[in-house]
Specification:
This protein is mostly helical. It has one domain: 23S rRNA-intervening sequence (de novo design (two linked rop proteins)). Helix content is about 75%, strand content about 0%. It is built from four helices and no strands. Helix 1 packs antiparallel against helix 4 and helix 2 packs antiparallel against helix 3. The longest helix has 28 residues. The protein is elongated.
Length: about 120
Amino acid sequence: MEEKSKTASSGKRYDLEDRCFLFARRVRVLVGQLKLTAANVEDSKQLIRSSGSVGANYIEANEALSKRDFVLRAKISRKEAKESWYWLRLLDIGVSELECERQALVQEAGELAKIFDAIVRKSE
Protein backbone atom coordinates (compact mmCIF):
# COMPACT_ATOMS: atom_id res chain seq x y z
CA MET A 1 0.00 0.00 0.00
CA GLU A 2 1.38 3.41 -0.93
CA GLU A 3 2.13 5.84 1.91
CA LYS A 4 0.86 9.33 1.30
CA SER A 5 0.75 12.45 3.38
CA LYS A 6 -1.87 15.08 2.73
CA THR A 7 -2.15 18.28 4.66
CA ALA A 8 -4.95 20.76 4.90
CA SER A 9 -2.63 23.45 3.51
CA SER A 10 -2.08 21.45 0.31
CA GLY A 11 -5.73 21.89 -0.60
CA LYS A 12 -6.24 18.13 -0.85
CA ARG A 13 -8.72 16.13 1.18
CA TYR A 14 -6.97 14.84 4.29
CA ASP A 15 -7.34 11.08 4.72
CA LEU A 16 -7.98 10.34 8.40
CA GLU A 17 -6.72 6.77 8.02
CA ASP A 18 -3.41 8.15 6.72
CA ARG A 19 -3.26 10.69 9.50
CA CYS A 20 -3.77 7.99 12.13
CA PHE A 21 -1.14 5.81 10.47
CA LEU A 22 1.41 8.63 10.39
CA PHE A 23 0.67 9.41 14.04
CA ALA A 24 1.43 5.80 15.04
CA ARG A 25 4.60 5.78 12.90
CA ARG A 26 5.85 9.04 14.45
CA VAL A 27 5.19 7.63 17.92
CA ARG A 28 7.30 4.58 17.10
CA VAL A 29 10.18 6.73 15.85
CA LEU A 30 10.05 8.83 19.03
CA VAL A 31 9.95 5.74 21.25
CA GLY A 32 12.98 4.33 19.45
CA GLN A 33 14.98 7.40 20.45
CA LEU A 34 14.08 7.44 24.16
CA LYS A 35 16.50 6.61 26.93
CA LEU A 36 15.87 3.16 28.36
CA THR A 37 14.49 3.73 31.83
CA ALA A 38 12.09 1.34 33.53
CA ALA A 39 9.30 3.92 33.28
CA ASN A 40 9.93 4.67 29.60
CA VAL A 41 9.94 0.97 28.71
CA GLU A 42 6.56 0.38 30.34
CA ASP A 43 5.00 3.67 29.21
CA SER A 44 6.28 3.13 25.67
CA LYS A 45 4.61 -0.27 25.45
CA GLN A 46 1.28 1.30 26.39
CA LEU A 47 1.85 4.21 24.02
CA ILE A 48 2.71 1.99 21.07
CA ARG A 49 -0.44 -0.07 21.63
CA SER A 50 -2.77 2.90 22.01
CA SER A 51 -1.31 4.92 19.13
CA GLY A 52 -1.67 2.01 16.73
CA SER A 53 -5.14 1.24 17.98
CA VAL A 54 -6.42 4.70 17.00
CA GLY A 55 -6.09 3.95 13.30
CA ALA A 56 -6.84 0.23 13.52
CA ASN A 57 -10.21 0.92 15.11
CA TYR A 58 -10.97 3.66 12.59
CA ILE A 59 -10.30 1.20 9.77
CA GLU A 60 -12.70 -1.22 11.48
CA ALA A 61 -15.25 1.59 11.83
CA ASN A 62 -15.09 2.20 8.10
CA GLU A 63 -15.84 -1.49 7.53
CA ALA A 64 -18.64 -1.56 10.12
CA LEU A 65 -21.69 -3.69 9.45
CA SER A 66 -24.04 -1.26 11.17
CA LYS A 67 -24.24 2.32 12.36
CA ARG A 68 -24.03 1.10 15.95
CA ASP A 69 -20.81 -0.79 15.16
CA PHE A 70 -19.39 2.30 13.43
CA VAL A 71 -20.10 4.49 16.46
CA LEU A 72 -18.59 1.90 18.82
CA ARG A 73 -15.35 1.72 16.81
CA ALA A 74 -15.17 5.52 16.52
CA LYS A 75 -15.58 5.75 20.30
CA ILE A 76 -12.74 3.28 20.75
CA SER A 77 -10.55 5.36 18.41
CA ARG A 78 -11.38 8.44 20.49
CA LYS A 79 -10.53 6.57 23.70
CA GLU A 80 -7.22 5.34 22.27
CA ALA A 81 -6.27 8.85 21.10
CA LYS A 82 -6.93 10.15 24.62
CA GLU A 83 -4.88 7.31 26.08
CA SER A 84 -2.01 8.08 23.68
CA TRP A 85 -2.17 11.73 24.79
CA TYR A 86 -1.80 10.55 28.40
CA TRP A 87 1.16 8.23 27.77
CA LEU A 88 2.96 10.84 25.66
CA ARG A 89 2.76 13.30 28.53
CA LEU A 90 4.26 10.73 30.94
CA LEU A 91 7.36 9.95 28.89
CA ASP A 92 10.72 10.94 30.34
CA ILE A 93 12.27 12.54 27.26
CA GLY A 94 15.66 13.46 28.67
CA VAL A 95 16.87 14.89 25.34
CA SER A 96 15.71 18.39 24.50
CA GLU A 97 15.71 17.69 20.75
CA LEU A 98 12.97 15.10 21.28
CA GLU A 99 10.78 17.39 23.38
CA CYS A 100 9.57 19.32 20.33
CA GLU A 101 8.41 16.10 18.65
CA ARG A 102 6.76 14.89 21.84
CA GLN A 103 4.83 18.15 22.15
CA ALA A 104 3.76 17.90 18.51
CA LEU A 105 2.54 14.34 19.12
CA VAL A 106 0.69 15.40 22.27
CA GLN A 107 -1.08 18.03 20.17
CA GLU A 108 -1.82 15.53 17.39
CA ALA A 109 -3.28 13.03 19.87
CA GLY A 110 -5.52 15.77 21.24
CA GLU A 111 -6.63 16.78 17.75
CA LEU A 112 -7.39 13.17 16.81
CA ALA A 113 -9.46 12.78 19.98
CA LYS A 114 -11.45 15.90 19.03
CA ILE A 115 -11.97 14.65 15.48
CA PHE A 116 -13.29 11.32 16.71
CA ASP A 117 -15.45 13.09 19.28
CA ALA A 118 -17.05 15.10 16.46
CA ILE A 119 -17.52 11.93 14.38
CA VAL A 120 -19.22 10.20 17.31
CA ARG A 121 -21.50 13.18 18.07
CA LYS A 122 -22.56 13.50 14.43
CA SER A 123 -23.15 9.77 14.08
CA GLU A 124 -25.24 9.18 17.18
